[in-house]
Amino acid sequence: MLTVTLNIPLAGEESLSPAARRLLEAARELLERGEAVISGGPGPAERRPDPVPAGRSPARPLAPAIPTLHILAASRSVLRDGEPLPLTRLEFDLLLHLVAHPRRVFTRLQLLNAVWGYEHAGVRTVDVHVRRLRGKVGVDVPLVTTVYGVGYRLADDARVTIDRTG
Q: A biological process (GO) annotation for this entry (predicted)?
């Protein structure tokens, strides 16, 4: 995860330099696609939000709620905000393994051994299954983090619960 702090005066966007304007637009695009969140910021005593100028509507919330995944281990099913999520056997096993070991980074070889049960398949098989899992869950759900040069782990802000009963 990368944290970036921007301090751009928004009172007059027309007075921004071209570079600052491009940076602001890029940040807005990330927020609209759900790939970024706004958090923290100055406290209420330090800065009060500017009133909405006449003729402009207030902005919609910038940080949409992150959907929750609920794993039902006994029935080998996954719910995304209560809706069933169709996963293959290997996608389910990969997700369950990562969720069972939060904050631990696994190499592709370790995942092949733990999830597939063997190490003879190409390590890129793991990449394909991670990509498919991310696609099925949705880009708005932080789930699997790539640790470049090492492997994969469960994202810090993943909202996943496991029900191992009945």
A: regulation of DNA-templated transcription
